[in-house]
Amino acid sequence: MVTLADARKVIAAAERQAREIGQPMNIAVCDAGGNLVSHVRMDGAWLGSIDISIKKAFTSRAFDIATRDLAKHSQSGGQFFGINASNDGRIMIFAGGIPLKRGGAVVGAIGVSGGSGEQDHSVAEAGAEAL
Q: Which H, E and C letters describe 102-121, residue by residue?
């Protein structure tokens, strides 16, 4: 289970990393059911990335995989090609979504959007490590 307190802790760590790299981000945390627990749009972060960050968190939890890894398998000829069209368009295959684990079990996910794929992933990773 991811509580609001957990989500705030994850988001705070992600925000620190985003500030460190100088990139404002949208940061979303969802619970084990893929439901949004909390979202933050840092000052200056893109409006269009709000939806993307939330969908990255959902995607990462829905398939218990980092979205950058899912993206690798979602390319033409890959085993998951076309997966982004599933789940009524909620699947986001850009880097920046990471499952949140406690005791080896997936309990939720973080989704980050607002920079390059590498930046989004590094910020999400910092958040995930805080749990």
A: ECCEEEEEEEEECCCHHHHH
Q: Is 46 left (phi over 0), alpha (psi -120 to 50) or beta?
A: beta
The residues, any chain, with a CB within 8 Å of residue 39's CB and separated by 6 or more, are: 26, 27, 28, 29, 50, 53, 54
Tokens of 127: 């958040």
SS3 assignment, position 52: helix
Distance set, CA 9 to CA 72, 87, 90, 95, 116 (Å): 29, 29, 25, 21, 23
Residue whose pair of structure tokens reads 């979602």 in the numeric block: 74
Q: Measure the CA–CA gap between 120 and 112, rounded to whole angstroms.
A: 5
Q: How do residues 49-72 score in pLDDT, each as one tens digit? A: 999 999 999 999 999 999 999 999
Task: Report pLDDT digits (tens) over 104-123.
Answer: 999 999 999 999 999 999 99
**Global pTM?**
0.95
Helix (H) or strand (E) holding 17: helix 4-21
Distance CA 20, CA 86 (A): 35
